[in-house]
């Protein structure tokens, strides 16, 4: 059990049968009346963000959440298969729990967030940036660079990324997995 004094970003709580993570919080002490804590909570199950206000001193049911290192093995009909980096235990996760499945390639290191009490996987997070090889790209037209011109390119996993005109087939690029945008060319 925790109180509102223990609220901080990243704290996981159980409320209304759902696991929620604190995204943002603000302790408010108005001139009249009691103090309260205004929070933004993100649900692990639905991914939605809700706002909730707690009275100061209210009791909260905390949840134990662990981030564990895993390696992506393969995808089959039942889902995505991962192996724990230290214990070599294998786990299968459905696509809805992965934050950017289109950038997942074999051997990729990820972090799986697990509810420690029930050993249930809640989500799978790729690193913020992944290196990909361009497998197909249209040639860029010379002299067409008056503005920040972009073109579509297909990477090794089959995902499409918007890249600058100078990027060609066979080159390695960094892709931001949170937004799906081109970051830089890898040398």
Commentary on this structure:
- A hairpin with a 5-residue loop joins strand 15 and strand 16.
- The model has no long low-confidence stretch (mean pLDDT 89).
- The protein is mainly beta and 187 residues long.
- It contains no helices and 16 strands.
- A six-stranded antiparallel sheet has the order 1-6-2-3-4-5, with no helix packed on it. Strands 9-8-7-10-11 form a five-stranded antiparallel sheet, with no helix packed on it. A five-stranded antiparallel sheet has the order 14-13-12-15-16, with no helix packed on it.
- It has three domains: 2-62, SH3 type barrels (Roll); 65-125, Beta Barrel (OB fold (Dihydrolipoamide Acetyltransferase, E2P)); 129-186, Beta Barrel (OB fold (Dihydrolipoamide Acetyltransferase, E2P)), CATH 2.40.50.140.
- The chain is flat, with a radius of gyration of 21 Å.
- The N and C termini lie far apart (50 Å).
Low-confidence stretches: none
Largest sheet: 6 strands, antiparallel
CATH domain fold name of the largest domain: SH3 type barrels
Architecture of the largest domain, CATH level 2? Roll
Strand content: over 45%
- Give the helix level as a range of percent: under 10%
Mean pLDDT figure? 89
- The helix-strand sequence is EEEEEEEEEEEEEEEE
Rg computed from alpha carbons, rounded to a whole number of angstroms:
21 Å
How many individual β-strands?
16
CATH class of the largest domain: Mainly Beta
- How far apart the termini lie comes to 50 Å
- The domain tally reads 3
Strands side by side in the biggest sheet: 1-6-2-3-4-5
Shape: flat
Q: Count up the helices.
A: 0
**Structural class per helix/strand content?**
mainly beta
């Amino acid at each position: 059990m925790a109180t509102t004094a223990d609220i901080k970003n990243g704290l996981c709580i159980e409320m209304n049968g759902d696991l929620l993570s604190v995204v943002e919080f603000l302790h408010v002490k108005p001139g009249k009346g009691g103090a309260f804590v205004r929070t933004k909570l993100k649900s692990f199950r639905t991914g939605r963000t809700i706002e909730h206000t707690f009275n100061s001193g209210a009791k909260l049911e905390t949840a134990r959440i662990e981030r564990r290192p895993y390696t992506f093995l393969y995808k089959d009909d039942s889902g995505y298969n991962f192996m724990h980096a230290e214990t070599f235990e294998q786990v299968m996760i459905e696509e809805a729990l992965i934050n950017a499945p289109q950038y997942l390639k074999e051997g990729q290191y990820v972090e799986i967030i697990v509810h420690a009490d029930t050993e249930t996987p809640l989500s799978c997070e790729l690193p913020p940036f992944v290196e990909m090889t361009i497998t197909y790209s249209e040639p860029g037209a010379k002299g067409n660079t008056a503005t920040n011109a972009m073109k579509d390119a297909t990477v090794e996993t089959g995902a499409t990324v918007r890249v600058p005109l100078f990027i060609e087939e066979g080159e390695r690029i960094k892709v931001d997995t949170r937004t799906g945008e081109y970051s830089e060319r890898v040398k």
